[in-house]
Amino acid sequence: MALDVAPVPHGRWHSFRLALRMARRDISRHRGRSLLIILLILLPVAGMTGAAALAQSMQETPAERVQYQLGSTQARFRSMPASNAETVQDPVLETATMTRNFTNDPDFKPRDPRDAIPAGYEVLTESQLTLTIRTGASDVSGSDVPVMAKAVDALNPAFTGKYTLLEGRPAAARDEILVSPGALERFGIRLGDRLTTADGTFAVVGTLRDATYSDGNPILFLKPGQAAMDSPAAQGSPLGETMYYLVGSEPVRWDQIRDLNRSGIAVLSRAVALDPPVASGAAEGPGTMPAAGYVAGVLIAALALLEVGLLAGAAFAVGAKRQVRELALLAASGAEAPTVRAVVTAAGLWLGTIAVMAGAVLGAGGAAAVVGVTRHLGSVRFPGFHLDILPTVAAMAMGLLACFLAAVVPARQVARQAVLGALKSGRAPAVRGPWPARVGGGLLVLAITFLAAGHTLGLSGDLDARAARIPLVAALLTGGAVLAVAALVLLTGTFVKVLTARTAWMPLPLRMAARDSARNRSRTVPAVAAVLAAATLASAAMVPLRQPDGGGKTHAHVGRAGKPGLPAAGNRTGPRHRNGPRPGHRPGCGGRGAAA
Amino acid sequence: MSIRHSLLALLQDQPRYGYQLRVEFEDRTGATWPLNIGQVYTTLDRLERDGLVSNDGGDGEGHVVYSITEAGRAEVQGWFATPVERSNPPRNELAIKLALAVTLPGVDVAAIIQAQRTASMRALQDYTKSRRDTAANQRAADTAWLLVLDSLIFQTEAEIRWLDLCEARMVQLAQASGTRSHPRKPSNGVTAEEAAPLTAENRR
Amino acid sequence: MSVQGPQQVLELAKVSRTFGQGTTAVAALRDVDLTVNAGEFVAVMGPSGSGKSSLLALAGGLDRPTSGSVFVESTPLAGLGLNALARLRRRAVGYVFQDFNLVPTLSAAENVALPLELDGVPARKAHRQAVDALRQVGIPEQAQRFMDEMSGGQQQRVAIARAIVGSRRLILADEPTGALDSTTGHGVMEVLRSRADAGAAVMLVTHEARHAAWADRVVFIRDGRIVDEATAMHNPAVLLAPAG
Q1: For residue A224, how many other CB atoms are within 10 A of its CB?
Q2: Which of B129, B172, B184 is most worth mutating to test chain C (most C CB atoms within 10 A of its CB)?
Q3: Which of A493, A494, A513, A495 has the alpha carbon at shortest distance from A503?
Q4: What fold characterizes domain C40-65+81-231?
């Protein structure tokens, strides 16, 4: 009787279904281990998704900018810091300007924005000014304090989305004003209290939220004309600029804006910002990360992915020994190599899919919660929740890949050793050549070279040359750091061996632990390496955190927008800087309690 | 083996006459120890003399029926309660043969061992087959016979294991002496020295 | 299927297997000739390291001989690739191991159905055949149990059921009683014997004479060579005659 050893039709499908079933059973029967693997992959994916979403949420979208800056008005006119008629503004960030000609044209006369407003619009004004507050016993310093004030009809329906009344009531009488919650706290007053400024004494009747400033900033909101714009305090202030908001149904077009630009007027138009002209030749819009931030992001992402792989590897190594035996058994029962691989793949896919899905949901949900709570508390650090799709998908893909790769290792082990050997002893072969150590050593040398080269290039030459080299230096440093971690991971096995070699002098428990680590290096190494990578990742994450906080940055550009001609944010002396947003320094309960 | 006690034990069941006792004994022990009828009558006479059985007279068909006395019952109980005494080193022909073979030059001990092992194995196979066939009938009366077969099986197995041990000892001996002057040729044609590395490595 | 003469299910012809090379080479098997016919139960006995397990691995296509040829159901294994060998194992060869080697995540019936399902038999049909095989080894009621809910003897019966399920006729058992007590071991031997009586070719590797004695033929192997063979006489009366 001749034996038929031909492959079965659709055998692949059959065995893959069987593999899925086995993998599912395996997961449900070893809940603890499966949960561990899921968590180890879920956490980095969630972290990366969340971090990416938060980073993205710090970037204002045009729609958000339009809402926060314009409310429901059509456009805003303001003067533009231009020295000739060739300066062009950005369609979205109107205070960002670009010019091909830097010469100062003596004949250039910028027009007053008020005169340039086309007919057919109702006009609302918003002026910024500085009031001086004579603080009494409530203030420690007990001196004159300059405070930012806005003269604006804040509660006009056209400013819906820009200004929100939080507590109290709209100011009605001439001596009534609204303030930001931060002002209540800063000056130790409650709703109904009176606030004495150099321009008069006002009763505080309500708190107002300005969508472009965090609640913590002390700001006074006056009606236009309520404070003398020509008072000595307002006169000399660079903040005395007035912006004109156009209320009407007709949108302001880009060609109109280009015309106005030639007259030294910058315009933020709802229609243009939401549908920016293509190739406007203007400055880069918001959302473009600066080079340094980009490098840090890449570095963190690379290390995080390494971390994902290592943690998943460690988790799978826990069950690998048992699985080697199971797979060998499958092979002895007549499973072809693809079937064995399918079982392993299925386990990796099940766990990986669950883990990356849950991770992405958790990360995005967490970020959304953070954004929501922060916004609710009155901070403008996050203009809105934006899910960053690319890093999220990348994190999910890498998590899945890491899970898959970590699961494939036992299958390779089965393939390499005799099936019978695996069945009889059930032990994974501990054959580990000198290669990891050699490659690790080589990588370490390479990493040091990269880092040294990056360091030297980054610090040599004049400023322009350095600026030109930023991408190269960044790449060298990032690559060096990632290579260094990879090298250390590869060398971990050797470290463990060396550290656990001389243990005869140790007390028995330590000796046993050391021997155990040395004998089960496939389990020890990923765990140690994961800790190593986590430490590196944490250090890398510290770098961007040490930069001025994101909220400050947001204010800086908005603030700058308000006062053309100022050299740099750092030179500004304003109330905001002294009393800038501090974590935990939120509108006090006292103020709210009084209003209630 | 004690015929005296065996007959007493059978009489404890019920009074019987000589021929009945013989048939009953052979039935229950699976005809492993055939009894001679003369032996039965002689033993019964002695038991009567010692007051362990009483002669109940004829059954009308010419058979003399015996029944057990109180003293007889006590004797049977004592017999069952006492472990069988182990006779001092049983005179085992196989042991003597091997002992001599090891000490004499020019004798292929391995061949002797293998030949014996094959023979024992064959016996073991047959006992096993016999046991299997008997057990397949599932007759209650076979219980005693199965016990006897089990005993034979275990004895034969023990013999084979003992042979394995003898063989292992010889390999060790050959290794220890390490002399190539008397290379012993086992049945498979491989000298003990040649086989040693493999054996030593794998024998744990 | 030929009618004349016994059918050779397994044939090893001049098979040698050497591990290692040069001076460190160890010959596990040397020129072994062995056939197992349908309905025949062959036991291979020998001390540890004598090559018994190597013989079994070669017969099941888990290993390849250094020289010589192995035929299963008249098919030479030498010409088969790894995946074809895997298919051969699940279609023609049943393995029984000392420590059962059942997949813990599958129930008894699923374990038995494994070779069938690997071969593309629909799950329902495979399950029916599996329960059938479990009935043949005497434990149909254990079909839905998992390994950790069964005794060693029951697990080994499941393993045997897995080895016989489908149309396979060659059972290779490697110390199947090694992890069992003697009564349970006896039960396993009964099952193997009954499989052979039902027409399977059984090759058992053991070092226990009591279990080898269940075979029709006992092959003694030593240092990689077959040194002797014992065939039952089937004449117990001779042995029972009073000695001397």
Answers
A1: 15
A2: B129
A3: A513
A4: Rossmann fold (3.40.50)
What is the domain count for chain A?
3
Q: What is the mean pLDDT of residues A452-462?
A: 81
Question: What is the number of alpha carbons within 13 Å of residue A583 lying toward its C-beta?
Answer: 3
Would you call A275 helix, strand, or coil by DSSP?
coil
Residues of chain C in contact with residue B33, where contact means CB-CB under 8 angstroms, are 242
Q: Which of A360, A395, A429 is the last residue of a domain?
A: A429
Give the pLDDT of residue A497.
77
For the stretch A68-79, pLDDT in tens is 888 888 889 888
Cα distances (angstroms) measured from residue C9 to each of C12, C87, C119, C175, C224: 10, 17, 21, 21, 22
User: Are A237 and A272 in a shared domain?
Assistant: no
Q: Is B192 helix (H, G, I), strand (E, B) or coil?
A: helix
Residue A112 exposed, middle or buried by CB count within 10 Å (0-12, 13-18, 19+): middle
**Strand order through the sheet with B53-58:** B16-17, B64-68, B53-58
| Residues A258, A113 share a domain | yes
Q: Which amino acid is at C6?
A: P
Find the domain containing A81 and state its range: 63-121+249-286
CA angle A218, A207, A145 (to 5 degrees): 25
DSSP track, A97-131: EE-S-----TT--PPPHHHHPPTT-EEEEEEEEEE
Same domain, A231 and A90: no
Tens-digit pLDDT profile for residues A270-299:
888 888 887 544 444 444 445 556 566 666
User: Which regions of chain C does DSSP assign to beta strands (E)?
Assistant: 8-19, 26-37, 41-45, 67-72, 75-76, 93-96, 170-174, 201-206, 217-222, 225-231
C-alpha distances (whole Å) from B92 to each of A43, B96, B98, B116 are 75, 6, 10, 13
Q: Which residues of B touch C230 (CB under 8 A)?
A: 118-119, 121-122, 125
**Model pLDDT for residues B24-47, shown as the tens digit of each residue:** 888 777 666 778 888 888 998 999
3-state DSSP of A377-397: CCCCCCCCCCCCHHHHHHHHH
Q: Is the domain of A231 the same as that of A337?
A: no
Please return the burial class of A125, using the count of CB atoms within 10 Å of its CB with bins 0-12, 13-18 and 19+: middle
H helix or E strand, kind and range, residue A548: none
Determine how many CB atoms are found less than 10 A away from the CB of residue C231.
Answer: 13
- Closest to A74 in 3D by CA, of A128, A121, A126, A125: A121
Pairing state between β C217-222 and C41-45:
parallel
A418·C63 Cβ contact <8 A = yes
Contact C16/C32 with Cβ under 8 angstroms? yes
Q: Which long-range contacts (CB under 8 A, 24 or more apart) does A467-470 make?
A: A470/A291
Q: Does B196 touch chain C (CB under 8 A)?
A: no
* List of chain A residues whose C-beta atoms are within 8 Å of the C-beta of residue C85: 5
CA B2, CA B23: separation in Å to the nearest integer? 17
Q: Which of residues 320-339 of A touch C (CB under 8 A)?
A: 325-326, 329-339
Domain extent listing, chain B: 3-81, 93-202
B147-173 burial, b at 16+ Cβ within 10 Å, e below that, comes to: ebbeebbeebbebbebbbebbeebbee
| DSSP string covering C16-43 | EEEES-GGG-EEEEEEEEEEEETT-EEE
Task: Classify residue A459: in a domain, yes or no.
Answer: no
Which has the minimum average pLDDT: A158-172, B74-88, B112-126, C216-230? B74-88
Please state the separation of Cα C186 from the chain's center in Å: 16
Interchain pair C49, B31: CB under 8 A: no
Q: How many angstroms separate the CA of residue A422 from the nearest CA in chain C?
A: 11
Q: If residue A151 lies in a helix (H) or strand (E), which one and from where to where?
A: strand A144-152
Q: What is the CATH number of domain B3-81?
A: 1.10.10.10
Interstrand relation of A176-179 and A200-210 (parallel, antiparallel or unpaired):
parallel
Whether residues A257 and A115 fall in one domain: yes
